[in-house]
Amino acid sequence: MASKRNDDEGGMMDYFPTELLENIFMNLSPSELAVVQQVCKRFKRIIDCYFRDENYWKRRLSSDYPDICHVVLRKCKPHMPYHNIYKSLTLWPRFNQVTEVQNSFACPTTAQGEVKGFILLKYNEMAVHTHGGIYYWNLRSLHPITRGPMYGNYLKYYESENIIVILGMSLNLFVQWPISPESVEYNEMRLSRVRTFLVHNRAMYIVFSDDEISFCQLYTSNYEMRTLQKMRDMVVALGFSNGHLNILTYRRNLYRLCNDEIVFQRALDLQCNMLELLRRYNFLENFDWMTFFRWVFLANPTICRGPLQDITLVKQYGDLFFVGTLWGIVRIYYKPYVNGELDIFSSRPLKEYNFLKTFRFSYPACPVLSIDVVEEHGCHRLYIAMPNGICVLNFHYNPPFLYGPLPMAEM
């Protein structure tokens, strides 16, 4: 009688070269590897080496979360292991099983201190845009830092590690950026009659008050403004997707910049899913939602009623969507798709908050102005800006989720 096969034996698999198995395993997702490593001890040894390799998790982050990978890495704690970042992102589908801790900061004492928005800079640093200027805060202590503020009431503000863009109330634009990524010398540019702008990588696209669109390449010693085209209709939003600038006009016409030429793509007719098209062309975060509801009301007046009436902000974060309204409602959705298209009006949120009731604002309205996320080990930190301050929601997972196997169904 044949003896019982030892667990170390893999049959024919024992004769497979390790290099060949590694090439096969390299193409499997973490959830698939978690299943395969149970086949035999040899597979487990090989896959355990993968799971201990930070380069593997770095590749998985880039391949599984291509849209938000660079954003997540920029905002998370320096030297945070890629494995922890990846696992934090996979925990979002279990978001309804977290423990919440709320806090707030940047609460104004005068009208000049009312918040207009914020930008997350490097880890634990935030630039808060108020009616009185730009102030910098430490997110660990929730106290102002020693960096000097920029005083003034600005219409729009953008800042990253290497560039500052300020659009004043009189439509004057100020831009400051280094001559090269390694340089300590800065270029400055001042323009007038600017309605809006969009910064993407090392390029800035500018819309003037007469709807002329221009382009400027940053991080060069000799910058030059180049006019692309003067639009016949008022530009309401700029977006960037698939390597192209997208332009949306008030008459619901959608254009794309291709080979330095602005080409008409399609019209957003009243029968299409306008929300899905705004997502596809990356307009969600750069859009006037009052305009959206004017368009939608023409097709279906009933859709503008209910908890999502008067949307002020929609932020996409991978498969998550954060929706804020004029009345302090914040809804968090995970994969709110119907027939493969975005539909927050028919989808059920993971969580919903009403900050107008929770914080008892003295204002008649409580518009949600900015939302952003920072990933921590076993924790998501959500920042929500409203005129009366910035709310911090810390979502902690219980130890079984942190130290157990990677969730398979969601990956």
UniProtKB/TrEMBL annotation:
One Pfam family in the UniProt entry: F-box-like
Q: Which SUPFAM superfamilies match?
A: F-box domain
Query: Could you tell me which residue ranges the F-box domain spans?
Result: 10-60
Family matches, as InterPro entries: F-box-like_dom_sf, F-box_dom
Q: Name the SMART domains on file.
A: FBOX
Q: Which domain of life is it from?
A: Eukaryota
* Name of the protein this chain belongs to: F-box domain-containing protein
The root-end lineage is: Eukaryota, Metazoa, Ecdysozoa, Arthropoda, Hexapoda
